[in-house]
Design a protein that fits this description.
alpha/beta, TIM Barrel, Rossmann fold, 3 domains, 8-stranded parallel barrel, 7-stranded parallel beta sheet
């Protein structure tokens, strides 16, 4: 039995770097895949939507491929998410035509369609049109292990009747399949499908390579891998390990893949952090979509000691196997009432006054004495953004906290210290701290508005919430201290700048008293 090895590093790995691989990595990778005898190389996604910056392997256009040097040997391919086609207003055939020329005019020979179980029955037109264009056609059923054997068998029989699919894959999308699950799903599909079967493993429980070996023993003739397992969540079966399987071992220059890993993929892995870990293992056991774990592990604002509880809470939401960013944010902050937490009307307590909003950062610590001098000189109101640092434990008028995550991180301090808090009280449940001003909150991307008793802010930045409160309290000036900014590639920098852009449309006198990389007016804290 011949077993085909498909490497999809440039496609599945793109979930970690937005499909923006450096050209020297791509060319060396392609050369190595040819040398070690990989049968198929999936070069990326091909899609219609263009809603944010993604690198070339998110689109893998014909023009991009024409610029690559594609070595002889492997058959090259791309993947299309079925939603890309099904969400279009025009016909599936027209959508396929907008993405693909005929096979004879393309450098790819394989197109795989990735579809959720509920989407499969709608995919026949696109699959047939790809076949008519001359492509080898694959269909990947995502999250197959969530379906019982009877459903899988019936769906496989239906796909068999399509008559246009060359290989039918089942994907362990959640990375939760054990040996018995691989056997059950394979046997269910085999009972209804007459053609070749493929398996795409994920490594959330550290079993990807062993599950691939089991799939091969069962009769799968197509299996996927990626270099160092680079892929969404915990990643995939490692191509370099799969090449040691006797049915996949090609014996062609195995040292070249070692060099590729050391030169390019190990540094990338250290930076991006894919691979099996306890959070991914727990996520798989709880049936969570791996993107939840990936996003939470990358969240620099989340204290990792709370990660277990957040994952456990996510497992209790409706459809935890479907990733939803707003659901994740709601669980992190324990938000209620469909996103709106109401508060009480704010009196004009800051009228004709200046308010200093102090970031709890090392920058602010450097200016501690100057902050006190400025407050005394201007008779300003002093507000801490979240719980004050020990080194900045000065006499604040208020402490602003807008979401449960920050409270989780400093729960004991909030309950112990006797500050006057500005907070959406209902968000904190049974928390034992005194809220002086119960100011509500609603999160809606792209919107910043004040309504007297609550604010709609574009993200969970406590600064946005605090500024909204100050504006409703009729502050004359709002001055920032310690908001230096982050590196240009840090998502927190973009998040803050997006908020400041929205703020600029308001009649608000907001400026920074200390150096900042944000685009905002600056004056000096020393100019008193």
């Amino acid at each position: 039995m011949t077993v085909n090895l498909l490497d999809c590093t440039l496609r599945d790995g793109g979930y970690y770097n937005n499909w923006d691989f450096k050209s020297d990595l791509v060319q060396e990778y392609l050369a190595v895949m040819a040398k070690v005898g990989v049968d198929y190389v999936e070069l990326g996604l091909r899609q219609i939507k263009n809603e944010r910056y993604l690198g070339p392997n998110a689109y893998t256009t014909s023009k991009y491929l024409d610029r690559l040097c594609l070595p002889e040997g492997p058959v090259y391919g791309v993947m299309v998410d079925a939603k890309t086609i099904l969400s279009q207003e025009h016909s599936q055939e027209d959508s396929i035509n907008s993405l693909f020329k005929d096979r004879c005019d393309e450098q790819i020979g394989l197109v795989r369609i990735a579809a959720h179980f509920s989407e499969v029955s709608e995919c026949f037109p696109m699959l047939m049109h790809l076949r008519q264009k001359g492509f080898l056609v694959g269909l990947n059923i995502m999250q197959a292990s969530l379906r019982d054997s009877e459903e899988l068998a019936a769906k496989a029989e239906m796909i068999n009747e399509f008559g246009c699919v060359d290989v039918l894959y089942f994907a362990d999308s959640l990375g939760s399949m054990a040996e018995q699950d691989v056997r059950r799903v394979y046997q269910a599909i085999r009972s209804g499908w007459r053609g070749e079967i493929g398996f795409h493993a994920h490594n959330n429980m550290g079993q990807a390579a062993s599950n691939v070996n089991i799939a091969i023993e069962l009769g799968c003739t197509w299996v996927d891998g990626t270099v160092t397992g680079m892929g969404r969540g915990a990643g995939n079966a490692q191509t370099e390990y799969l090449l040691e399987n006797s049915k996949l071992k090609r014996g062609n220059d195995p040292g070249s893949i070692f060099s590729l890993v050391v030169r390019h993929f190990d540094p990338l892995k250290n930076r991006c952090g894919w691979g099996a870990s306890m959070p991914y293992f727990l996520g798989a056991k709880l049936g969570l979509h791996p993107t939840y774990v990936q996003e939470l592990c990358a969240n620099t604002q989340l204290d990792k000691k709370h990660l277990y509880q957040v994952l456990a809470d996510l497992s209790k939401v409706e459809r935890p196997h479907v990733f939803c960013n707003s659901t994740m944010e709601d669980v992190i902050s324990k938000k209620t009432d469909g996103g709106l937490v109401l508060g009480k009307k704010v009196p004009p307590i800051f009228e004709k006054k200046e308010v200093l909003l102090i970031a709890q950062t090392d920058i602010s610590v450097e200016y501690k004495e100057s902050i006190l001098d400025y407050v005394e000189s201007k008779n300003a109101i002093l507000i801490s953004i979240n719980m004050p640092l020990r080194l900045l434990d000065i006499e604040y008028d208020f402490v602003a906290v807008s979401h449960n995550q920050k409270y989780r991180e400093d729960r004991e301090k909030y309950n112990k210290d006797k500050y006057k808090y500005i907070a959406p009280r209902k968000m904190f449940g049974e928390a034992d701290f005194q809220v002086t001003h119960d100011y509500g909150i609603s999160i809606k991307p792209g919107l910043f508005e004040m309504y007297g008793s609550y604010a709609t802010v574009p993200n969970r930045l406590t600064l946005a919430y605090a500024i909204a409160f100050c504006l409703d309290a009729k502050a004359k000036n709002i001055s920032l201290v310690g908001f230096g900014g982050f590196s240009s590639d840090d998502p927190r920098q973009k998040e803050m700048q997006q908020f400041l852009s929205l703020l600029s449309s308001k009649s608000a006198n907001v400026r920074s008293l200390t150096p900042t990389s944000y685009v905002i007016p600056e004056i000096s804290i020393y100019g008193i």
